[in-house]
Design brief:
- By secondary structure, this protein is α/β, with parallel strands linked by helices.
- It contains 16 helices and 14 strands.
- It has a 7-stranded mixed sheet, with helices on both faces. A 5-stranded mixed sheet has the order 2-10-11-14-13. The chain has a two-stranded parallel sheet with strand order 1-12.
- A hairpin with an 8-residue loop joins strand 10 and strand 11.
- Helix 2 packs across helix 3, helix 4 packs parallel to helix 12 and helix 5 packs across helix 10.
- The structure holds pyridoxal-5'-phosphate.
- Pyridoxal-5'-phosphate (PLP) binds next to helix 5 and strand 7.
């Protein structure tokens, strides 16, 4: 940093800002950093403050944690292909008339999960909000007490219902709810049930003395069944994976099978097990989907063409049954043998020890599920150093050892990780 004038006089904000242009931020951001530094009585800290600001901006990071859907790292990684060009977002190229932005990716997803129709909103929380607004505004919604959940980030089902204008009717108990409990509420002449809601227990489990009605039982009631399956598994048979469904999927509910069992609608996230960009999908019976689409909230919750384009690519990969084209499934399907082959390159350079580790699907899905994986271990806690690199590497520490799980590292980044580990010496 150049000299800033006599030591007994504070430097001018502008001069200080001009002395830290190497950080590469626009001038107003450098001025803010300079101002904070001067206010804190340490002008020399301006450079560090500006650097911290710069590092808050979005950039690619290398996920070495082994958590495939890492909420802090944007859940499912996706490629976005779009040049600086217009798109036919709301133009029907065949007729020249107005097209529907909700339809394109929605039609493909509907085809892939056996729904009559699907529409896209910003996330699954928005999907649930819109479904309740569209089907149960001012009406009753019946939910089991075992499913009145908080998903994370303050998404609480009872609160969402209140926002959606619906009145909550709780039935059953925390551990046991029967179809008769639902039927009693639906058939009660004093109620006006717009929706029977089922919410997937994504991030917790109730074990022991439990009971819950099947989807088919609930679908037989005299009100539309909406299933918030959250995690977005499209089809429990996983036809996009050569080896079929992996064992760890176990009893995860899937969109296709939930609809086939009679649910009127399913709602799910685009960026969990679906493996696409952040989005929420409402799929099922065409009339019910239309009721949601016509609600005034729909416009406030609709995504733009960047998201819809990435979702379309993901849906096409499902229809082609190409799991390898979906980063989540490509990583999830990696075998220990494949990972060992990659680990050999790390071993050969001596930058760390090749060890067995456990990956997790993450994203608040499949609690307790672990997959055998292969990692590189270095003694000591190196998280801060690795995170501080230009290509930040997010590693995991257990005991006094730092681990980089190769399952969640893109193979093209292996060389970068090797160099980073070497630089720790
Ligand atoms: C994750 C989840 C949500 C919220 O999904 P977002 O896409 O993050 O809004 C809602 N419901 C269930 C059951 C979930 O698992």
């Amino acid at each position: 940093m150049p000299s800033l004038g006599p030591a007994d006089r504070p430097p001018s904000v502008d001069a200080l800002a001009r002395s830290i242009t190497d950080v590469g931020l626009p001038h107003p951001m450098l001025v803010d950093a300079a101002r904070s530094a001067i206010a804190a009585g340490s002008p020399e800290s301006a450079h560090g403050i500006a650097l911290a600001t710069s590092r808050r901006m979005l950039r690619p990071v290398i996920n070495g944690t082994g958590t495939i859907l890492h909420t802090n790292l944007g859940r499912a990684p996706v490629a976005v292909h779009q040049a600086e060009r217009y798109t036919n977002l709301e133009l029907d190229l065949t007729t020249g008339g107005r097209g529907s932005r909700m339809a394109t990716a929605g039609d493909l997803i509907a085809r892939a999960c056996g729904a009559e129709k699907a529409i896209i909103v910003n996330n699954c929380a928005a999907a649930v909000l819109l479904v309740l607004g569209g089907l149960a505004d001012g009406r009753d919604v019946v939910v089991s007490r075992s499913e009145l959940v908080e998903i994370g980030g303050g998404f609480r089902i009872p609160d969402v219902m209140a926002r959606g204008g619906a009145n909550l009717i709780e039935v059953g108990t925390t551990n046991r709810t029967r179809v008769a409990d639902f039927a009693k509420a639906v058939d009660d002449p004093a109620t006006d049930v717009g929706v029977v809601l089922r919410v997937h227990q994504s991030n917790y489990k109730i074990v022991g003395f439990t009971e819950a009605p099947t989807t088919a039982q609930l679908a037989g009631l005299d009100a539309p069944l909406v299933a918030d399956i959250g995690s977005g598994l499209l089809d429990s048979r996983c036809p996009w994976l050569q080896g079929g469904p992996p064992g760890w999927l176990a009893e995860e509910p899937a969109a296709r099978q939930t609809l086939a069992a009679g649910a009127g609608l399913v709602a799910f996230s685009g960026d969990k097990l679906f493996g696409g960009p952040q989005a929420g999908i409402i799929a099922g019976d065409a009339e019910l989907v239309d009721q949601c689409a016509q609600h005034p909230l729909a416009r406030a919750l609709r995504p733009g063409d960047l998201v819809l384009g990435a979702l379309q690519d993901t849906a096409l990969a499902y229809l082609r049954e190409e799991g390898n084209a979906i980063p989540f499934w490509r990583m999830a399907a990696l075998t220990v043998e494949q990972l060992r082959l990659r680990a050999a390159a790390f071993d050969a350079t001596g930058v760390g020890d090749v060890v067995d580790v456990q990956s997790t699907p993450g994203g608040g899905t499949l609690p307790g599920v672990e997959m055998d994986s292969v990692g590189i271990a270095r003694s000591g806690d190196h998280r801060d150093t690795l995170r501080g690199l230009d290509r930040p590497i997010i590693a995991r520490v257990e005991g006094d050892t730092t681990y980089v799980d190769l399952r969640t590292v893109h193979p093209e980044d292996d060389a970068t990780v090797i160099n980073a580990l070497r630089s720790l010496d």
